[in-house]
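Much of our argument rests on the idea that a fold can be written as discrete symbols. This step matters because it turns folding into a mapping between discrete strings. The record that follows shows the chain in one-letter code together with its fold in token form.
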Amino acid sequence: MQTDGFVIKNPFTATAEELKRVTPDKRALPVTALCGRISAPFEGGNRKKLCYRELTGALVRMGLLEERTLDGGKKEIRPASLGLSVGISTEDRKSRNGSRTVLLYSPSAQRFILEHFDTVMKYIDEAREERRTARRSRK
């Protein structure tokens, strides 16, 4: 859809069938790189890229990741036991801004997500509907 020179893209959506042409990387990837890999076949189309927050939220709902609240109220996401079993791990990384823990998705974890992408999209769609409902109720 185009409006006054701007292209309005639809939220990302895909089926496990559409993603059969996406192959897992040979190395473990952080979530943003994984989202880019999943979105790549659809670039140039009318779909937005897969948002890492949506993918992470779906994986929490699927029980692969868990969200914990730390002292001071800060939240962190870590692999749940199911996530560890499919190959989601953590790695401490250092940068100019200090150190942080990154979630990494091994080739087997990437394969699991691609093979179960219909379930991932179901949870993403549920979360989108919950946000729409919350926005409507605030009006």
